[in-house]
Every structure is written in structure tokens, then in C-alpha cells.
Write a structure and sequence with these properties.
alpha+beta, Ribosomal Protein S8, Chain: A, domain 1, 5-stranded mixed β-sheet, 6 helices, 37% helix, 13% strand
Length: 182
């Protein structure tokens, strides 16, 4: 014989167990659809973070003046030698200035980018970027000088830069020539 109860006794047991139960009122009641949350753009955030990290890294060390004794200077091919010579001689009128003294590398990069964008928006063509000579930094070496040089070459709105003449900051500053407004 099997130990399993007969089907009639199972039904009787079930009826006895639910004898006091009452059906729920309003059987037509609808449950609201689940709230759909907007998807998070996780991949875009990861891509933007990776791009930011890449942009903040400086694989090239541009301490040209310490290695060769030359001043910092750079220009795009489209800039004529006469325009660049005027910039190096300090013959352009400085229309703005950004001072990066006391800022960390990351703070300086953000501050410089914001200032250059603001200068360009107002139509400034020549600005002075003061990065300092590094006299108060560890080993008395300029920390931001090479960084600023590298950052400036990455910007499309920068046509040229050179070390400022002594009267405008000398080795602690650069004059930057910005693209004209269209």
C-alpha cells in the first residue's frame, strides 16, 4: 500500500484548511505598473572618466629650458614667423592674465582651461599665464611650467606661446596667442 492519501481526502483537507477564508473584495482591482527607472549611462560615464584621466596625464616632460637653456616657445605651422617674433618680443598687448600660483596640478589645469575659454569668448588675442618659477616648491623647481606648456599645445584655440619678456614675468610666465573669434 502507498502512504499517499487518496485524492478525495486531499480535497477534504484543503477545504477544511480554507474554510474560514473570504475572497478579496473587488476582483477587478488593477495593480499599478511597476515604476520604470531611466537607465543609467554607465558606459558613457566610464568613457568620460577615461577621457578625463587621459587628458590629465602628461606623458611628455617638456622641461626644455632646463635641459637646453632655451626658452619655452611653441607655435602652430599656420602662425607666421613675423607674428611669432612679435609675440616673443612682447609687442602684443596683453589683454588678460591668469595666475596659477598656489594651485595643484589638477586645479591649475581646470583653472587654466576655464580662463582661456573665457578669454576666447571675450575676443582676447594675447594673454599672460603665470605659472611661477618654482622658488617655493620642493627642490626649487617649477612644477607647473612644463605642465602648462603641454596643456597649451593640446588646445585648439592656442596658436602659439612663448616665455614672457622679463618685464612681464620672464621664466615664470608665458604669453599665449589665442585664435581670433570667427
Amino acid at each position: 500500500m502507498s502512504s499517499r492519501p487518496e485524492p478525495e481526502s486531499e480535497a477534504a483537507l484543503f477545504r477544511a484548511a480554507v474554510a474560514g477564508a473570504r475572497p478579496l473584495p473587488d476582483a477587478r482591482r488593477l495593480t499599478p505598473p511597476p515604476v520604470r527607472l531611466r537607465p543609467l549611462p554607465l558606459q558613457r560615464w566610464a568613457d568620460e572618466r577615461a577621457a578625463l584621466i587621459d587628458s590629465l596625464s602628461d606623458p611628455v616632460d617638456w622641461d626644455l629650458d632646463r635641459l637646453t637653456g632655451e626658452q619655452l616657445a611653441w607655435k602652430r605651422d599656420a602662425v607666421s614667423p613675423q607674428v611669432f617674433r612679435k609675440l616673443r618680443r612682447g609687442q602684443w598687448i596683453v589683454q588678460g592674465e591668469v595666475d596659477l600660483h598656489g594651485l595643484t596640478r589638477d586645479e591649475a589645469r581646470v583653472h587654466l582651461a576655464g580662463a582661456l575659454a573665457e578669454f576666447a569668448r571675450h575676443g582676447a588675442r594675447c594673454v599672460r599665464v603665470i605659472h611661477g618659477k618654482g622658488l617655493r616648491s620642493r627642490n626649487r623647481e617649477p612644477v607647473l611650467k612644463a605642465k602648462v606648456a603641454h596643456w597649451l599645445t593640446q588646445r585648439d584655440d592656442v596658436l602659439a606661446y612663448c616665455e614672457a619678456p622679463a618685464r612681464d614675468g620672464g621664466g615664470g610666465a608665458v604669453l599665449v596667442l589665442l585664435r581670433a573669434l570667427r
